[in-house]
Amino acid sequence: MPYAHITGWGISVPEPVLTNDDISKMVDTNDEWIRERTGIRERHIAREDQFPSTLGVEAAIKALKVANIAPTDIDLIICTSSSPEYIWPPTACLIQDQIGATKAGAFDLQGVCTGFIYATNMAAQSIRSGSIKNALVIGTETLSRFINWKDRSTCILFGDGAGAFVLQASDNPGGILSAVMRSDGSGADSLILPGGGSRFPASESTIHENKHYVHMDGKAVFRFATRVMGQAAKEALEKANMTTDDIQWIVPHQANYRIIETAAKYLKMPLDKFVINVERYGNTSTASIPIATVEAVEKGMIKNGDKIVLVGFGGGLTWGALVAEWTGPVPSKRNVHPEQYRFFARLRSLARRAIRYLEGLFSRREL
Ligand SMILES: CC(C)(COP(=O)(O)OP(=O)(O)OC[C@H]1O[C@@H](n2cnc3c(N)ncnc32)[C@H](O)[C@@H]1OP(=O)(O)O)[C@@H](O)C(=O)NCCC(=O)NCCS
Questions:
Q1: Rounded to whole angstroms, how far apart are CA atoms 134 and 5?
Q2: 253 labelled catalytic
Q3: Ligand 1 pocket at CB < 6 A
Q4: Which of 74, 154, 301, 337 fits as disulfide partner to 296, beta carbons 3.0 to 4.6 Å?
């Protein structure tokens, strides 16, 4: 049975920064309160012309570059987002078109902030089963578009960004070693974006009632998160026949510094074994775990051979963790430039649209 290794990684974070002081000019809050309760100092907010696919494409191209494989080598793209570009088509298909992944199946996986754990595990299992060889997993958010900037209990928390992993099959042991995925839909109301789906389709009243914004019972989510995060990490380690002594790093979902502190206490692990960057990004939902992982790799904290735990929680309610051995890119003599495929991808996409247009004209005449 092949192993599924993480061989490529990349992130894309929009430049504009919104500090706590900036938010304190919009709602009744202040920097001290936000830092004390959440650990967040600032977050990045997408420009008007940046969408989940824009950020997702940038992260994906970087990940392909690190893995040194072409978009045309990708068999499967799983995109996970709490702020997808549309209800459908999947954001994964928009990314597939823009990067020129001509042989890939593409779908979105909705697991809210746990989405990246679920998606990475699903991609790994597809590789482990032997049905595919190369997968691209992307977590990408412009969640700022669904935030009520008049609600101080939510607008302080979230930020935008994207992260991507390339997973590849290999006969060498390593890569994704175990995973746990859990859910509890009885808590669906505690963290919800109620408007715009089929229960509350967009209408004047859904807009008046602010249903198109994130609604959250902060205390309930806090209690849930502190309970499940350490537990999930422990279960994933047990599944891999490991203990916390065997791992070098834990990369938790970056929602709140205090939640990470509680998980560290539960696991009896020092906080300096946790990768934490929530102070600079806030909660970027599905993108938070890859952004933190990639930063830790680029800073030389996570090294080849390290065993790590990725652990997340979020709306659903959902939570999960996976244990991985970080092995890095597969050595290869060829030098691939995935960014060059974007030009041809654009041409191909335009040509396909033109053909579809002409086919439409032609078939109308036939009728
Ligand atoms: C949101 C959160 C930071 C609030 O912290 P808290 O300690 O629970 O704060 P509370 O909601 O109890 O509010 C305490 C007081 O601060 C006030 N308050 C809330 N938001 C505030 C803000 N941004 N600035 C200043 N005061 C604020 C409340 O109105 C309340 O005032 P009151 O005592 O006069 O009624 C915290 O509950 C949390 O982080 N929850 C988890 C959220 C999360 O991670 N969601 C994403 C999961 S993927």
A1: 10
A2: yes
A3: 29, 33-34, 37-38, 113, 152-153, 156-157, 191, 216, 218-219, 221-222, 225, 255-256, 283, 314
A4: 301
The question of whether 304 is a catalytic residue gets the answer no
CA of 317 to the centre of ligand 1 (A): 19
Residue with the nearest Cα to atom 30 of ligand 1?
153
Instruction: Identify the burial level of 359 via C-beta atoms within 10 angstroms of its C-beta, where 0-12 means exposed, 13-18 middle and 19 or more buried.
Output: exposed
The one catalytic residue among 5, 20, 44, 113 = 113
- Report pLDDT for 350: 95
Domain 3-325 maps to which CATH number in 3.40.47.10, 3.40.50.720, 3.30.460.10, 2.60.120.260?
Answer: 3.40.47.10
Query: In angstroms, how far apart are the furthest CA atoms of the chain?
Result: 72
pLDDT for residue 132 is more than 90: yes
d(CA 304, CA 295): 14
Find the helix or strand (DSSP H, E) in which 106 lies: strand 105-108
